[in-house]
Write a structure and sequence with these properties.
Length: about 140
């Protein structure tokens, strides 16, 4: 059964462009509620650990540098069918391929600076939420 949480980050490009408010509004309009949220800057080590599944990819170094290059917002969101519905709301990883009206189409600059992250499975949503937040069971 599909789970009801997903994890997101508003990436450095979105924060730098002052788009935290408009992007969170789109998430709310898409039916998502915020369960936990924090504003922080990742160290290179933390970014490398978060994206360890991409370690062998050619873009890994660029990804880690990019994600540790400025502040981000990390959040846990809830909605029925959260992972799939959120991926639909944010659009394709490459913003030039994202559908009209999606968050990446509206706010992303490039495949690396693509405004937001969204979990790709229920299992990863749990792992990623736990990477940033503890005691989520309180909610
Ligand atoms: P995200 O959903 O956070 O998951 C992995 C990230 O790697 C992805 O978004 C992109 O920002 C980034 N990424 C994927 N492919 C490339 C690429 N070809 N070049 C640079 N970054 C990439």
């Amino acid at each position: 059964m599909a789970g009801n949480i997903t994890f997101t980050m508003l990436k450095p490009d979105a924060v730098e462009a002052n788009n935290i408010g408009p992007i969170l509004a789109k998430m709310n309009e898409g039916g998502f509620r915020i369960l936990a949220m924090k504003y922080l800057r990742l160290s290179k080590e933390q970014a490398g650990q978060f994206y360890a599944v991409h370690k062998e990819r050619p873009f890994y170094g660029e990804l880690v540098n990019y994600m540790s290059g400025g502040p981000i917002v990390a959040a846990v969101l809830t909605k029925d069918n959260a992972v799939a519905d959120f991926r639909k709301l944010i659009g394709a990883t490459d913003p030039s391929k994202a559908e009209e009206g999606t968050i990446r189409k509206l706010f992303a600059k490039s495949i690396a600076a693509n405004a937001v992250h969204g979990s790709d499975s229920d299992e990863n949503a749990g792992i990623e939420a736990n990477f940033f937040f503890s005691q989520l069971e309180r909610f």
